[in-house]
Amino acid sequence: MLQVKNIVKYYGENKAVDNLSFEVKDGEIFGLLGENGAGKTTTFRIIMGLLDATDGTVLLNGRKIDYSLTDQIGFVTEERSLLTKMTVKEQLIFYGILKGMSEKKIENELKKWLKFFQIEDYENRKIKELSKGNQQKIQFISAVINHPKLLILDEPFTGLDPINVELMKKAIYKLQEEGCSIIFSSHQMEHIDAFCEKLIILVKGKAIVDGYVQDIKKEYKKKNILIRGEDIPVTEIEKIKGVISVTKQKDEYAVKVDEDSIAPKVFAKIKNKNITKYDVTEATLNEIFIAKVGEVHE
Question: Fewer Cβ atoms within 10 A, N terminus or C terminus of the chain?
Fold first, then answer.
């Protein structure tokens, strides 16, 4: 389990991380979100022991993280961190040895992961000859080849097509089943929604949203109503107090309302129409992120 306790980080007079605390249990996927410059990268570097916090503590399985523990942490960065003149095999052997693995163990794991990602034929290809998506797969393998206790994923789907996104998801779930604690960061909220049970949203290094995704959605009162049918009385719906907006999306209308209690009023306007869909849904994480971050900047 990872425990981040009241960490603070100053760069000169600038407070990059402001009294941040959270826990990631074994086998849990935790979302750390924020705009560019919100403090995510600084937090990652502190967790990995690359930076010292000005104040606060980071523990992995009850121990303060130092060089004796950093081999147990895998990190997939948004930017490529591969040695492009090396072959895939040379690259993974290099990273595996740095993590304290024997060459035999590395080769066994290498073959398993290359087969998993359907790139066995690329073992002796140079990194620079691979597509961006295949480079991302190698970057992922280099981070997890020693089965880390903690894995930090910063935009792990960069450069991947939909088929390979699904492969990467399966790989992440595989590590979760092994008990790996995972921190997931992405600007693609649908991935956060799919993976994370808990999350934090950072603004200027401070947590402005913190909790279970399900609870965060329930506490955010605004809802969406999706309506499909004929002769929808858009003007009448827009006049209902508590209706924020009505927008056309392909063959249906999306009605944004302040809270659940407005939904029956909307239904009363359409119940005698030829309706094929009426669905009240919670706000998306993307909507919540925009709203909460926007409130801080106002």
Answer: C
CA distances from 125 to 48, 76, 96, 133 (A): 30, 21, 18, 14
CATH number for 253? 3.30.70.980
The DSSP letter of residue 15 is E
Same domain, yes or no, for 47 and 89? yes
- Which of these, 72, 92, 99, lies nearest to 180 by C-alpha position? 72
Handedness of CA 70, 73, 77, 82 (dihedral sign): positive
Selection from 29, 288, 272, 295 nearest residue 150 by Cα: 29
Q: The tokens of 165 are what?
A: 């996104």
Stated pTM of the model: 0.85
Q: What is the CA radius of gyration of the chain?
A: 23
* Runs of H (alpha helix) within the chain: 40-47, 88-98, 103-116, 132-144, 162-177, 189-195, 213-219, 234-238, 263-270, 285-297
Q: Are residues 4 and 23 in contact, defined by beta-carbon separation less than 8 angstroms?
A: yes
Q: Are strands 252-257 and 223-229 parallel, antiparallel or unpaired?
A: antiparallel
The SS3 assignment for 92 reads helix
Residue 287 lies in a domain: no
* Predicted confidence (pLDDT) per residue in 237-288, tens digit: 999 999 999 999 888 999 999 988 999 999 999 988 899 999 998 888 988 9
- Say yes or no: 162 and 70 in one domain: yes
Give the integer Cα–Cα distance in Å for 136 and 160: 8
Asked, for residue 135, whether it belongs to a domain, the answer is yes
Domain that holds residue 123: 2-217
- Token pair 């009505």 is at which residue? 246
- pLDDT digits over 283-296, tens only? 889 889 988 887 76
CA distance 157 to 24: 21
